[in-house]
Amino acid sequence: MAIGDIIVGIDIGTSKVNTVVGEVNNFNQVEIIATSECKCFGMKKSKIIDEEEIASAIVKIIQQAEETANIKIHSAYVTIPGKYITIVQNSIFKEAKDKYAGISTKDVTSAIMQVKDIDVPDDKVLIDIIANEFSLDNGRIVEDPVGSLSSAFTVKGQVILADKDYVKKLTSIFKKANIEIDGIVSNVLAERGLILDKNELKDNVMILDIGAGNIDIGVFEGESFLYTNTIPLGGDNITSDIAYVFNISEDEADRLKKQYRTCIKIIYR
């Protein structure tokens, strides 16, 4: 990333579509300069049911973000539910091209590109590669092997695959909205760096993202992305249950849910 670069992200949920616009500042951090959202019910239970409605919502949120940030947006990254993601673990052993000069940037880049060399099923498409561990030939684990006086190293990583039909639908939607897709990112993978602190990034963690109609799950073992999926239940189900139990309207149930937010566990003996 270079100073001044603009990064746009779009999340398509079951009740609304959101966008966030960030600009890379002088500290090489992404600073949020605009956000927008629009109600949208083109997705249900993590399935796209109305491409036109989603495309229309994307057009609206992009226009709002452009007005706020005073820029023109041509492309964006988009999130994808865990249900449509497959994670393949892979590792590559790589010898340094010049063992006397140490490991070069070219060696590392070549190794990472080799991580993606797997048999991709016909119904999947590769959307990302995550290199999360480098170990030298003496067994020492390093964050960045470049410059290490080692004759070889091993890189462990994850190859992220997505459902081809879902990606085709996303591509169709963004084409209708006249927005290019910069990349497709797993929901929980995108959230990981935002909600976890530096210590938690090294821990074994499960992230639960509770939306209106879905719960996205992500399991991480340190830097490794192990598992993701989607449960077709969410905040709307909680609202419906409150309304049913107390015999009140869903609007009132939603107000109560947001006001109190805490459930008290009652144990009957």
The neighbouring-strand order within the major sheet is: 3-2-1-6-11
Estimate what percentage of residues fall within beta strands: 35-45%
Distance between the termini: 59 Å
Number of strands: 14
Shape by Cα distribution = globular
For the sheet with most strands, the description reads: 5 strands, mixed
Report the mean per-residue pLDDT as an integer: 92
Q: Which stretches are low in confidence, meaning pLDDT under 50 for 5 or more residues running?
A: none
What is the ordering of alpha helices and beta strands? EEEEEHEEHEEEHEHEEEHH
CATH architecture of the largest domain: 2-Layer Sandwich
Domain tally: 2
CATH top level of the largest domain is Alpha Beta
What name goes with the CATH superfamily of the largest domain?
Answer: ATPase, nucleotide binding domain
Oligomer: single chain
Structural class: alpha+beta
Determine Rg (CA atoms, Å). Answer: 22 Å
**Count, helices:** 6
Per the CATH scheme, the topology name of the largest domain is Nucleotidyltransferase, domain 5
Helical residue percent? 25-40%
Question: What key phrases describe this protein's structure?
Answer:
269 residues; alpha+beta; Dna Ligase, domain 1; four-stranded antiparallel beta sheet; 6 helices; 28% helix
Quick overview of this protein structure:
The protein has helices at residues 51-69, 105-115, 164-176, 187-195, 235-246, 250-260, and strands at residues 6-12, 16-24, 30-39, 43-44, 47-48, 75-80, 85-95, 124-136, 141-142, 152-163, 180-186, 204-210, 215-221, 224-231. The longest helix has 19 residues, at 51-69.
